[in-house]
Amino acid sequence: MNIAIVEDNKIIREGLELYFKNDSQFSCDIAVDSVEAFLQSIGRCSEIDVVLLDINLPGMSGIEGIRHIKHQYPDVYIIMLTIFKDEKHVFDALKAGANGYLLKNTPLKSIKKGVLQILEEGAPISPLVAKKVINYFNPQKSNKEDGFEKLTSREIEVLQALSEGAPFKNIADKLFVTIDTVRYHSKNIYRKLNVNSKLGAVKKYLKKQD
Question: Does a structural domain hold residue 19?
């Protein structure tokens, strides 16, 4: 079984690559840091069965990448492997065509189990993510609107970076935008979350992640 890894964190990418290469059930011909690099590499490799795909990537986002990959290689299975566990990222990924959704704190053995499961027509989803999906379709248990449902994917990326303590300049560099654009997104985030500052937005975001 041939696996591809698209992950911009070098330590995580190399760890996954080493793990699967050391398992006789798998081969790993592609381990790259962006969707663009994956699309350039796949034509030179043998058939890929499963792609482990991050969301927050340099250049094209993982969610946008799903559509490009599926368009060119409709038989490839895509499992998101990400830190994002909010409903918007989960449903955007699934609607785009992702076949599974795992969080990055998933143990390697469980990731392997998910890869094997997906080839048997399963849909590997981290328990916390599965709970959010169930709650979404259960009106009696769903949370009241708190503003997060109004955020765009880009605004959530900015908010995630803010929660990690990244300054505006670093966020701008990572997202390939200007500092003024980051400030614009931040003001929209504060307005939609009904807070008055970066600290207020981050506190509300972190509380939602608990």
Answer: yes
CA 92 to chain CA centroid, nearest Å: 10
Same domain, 115 and 155: no
Choosing from 136, 164, 188, the residue where a domain stops is 136
Say how many C-beta atoms besides its own lie within 10 A of residue 59's C-beta: 14
Of 49, 47, 115, nearest to 81 by C-alpha is 115
User: Would the pTM of this model clear 0.85, i.e. be above it?
Assistant: no
User: Phi and psi (nearest 5°) for 51?
Assistant: -115, 125
Q: Which amino acid is at 190?
A: Y
Q: Which residues contact 210 (CB under 8 A, 6 or more apart)?
A: none
Side-by-side strand order, sheet with 2-6 = 27-32, 2-6, 50-53, 77-82, 100-103
Contact 91, 136 (CB under 8 A): yes
- What's the pLDDT tens digit per position in 149-191? 889 989 999 999 999 899 999 999 989 999 999 999 999 999 9
Nearest to 17 by CA among 27, 9, 25: 27
Domain count, the chain: 2
In a domain, 141, yes or no: no
Q: Look at residue 28 and give its three-state secondary structure.
A: strand
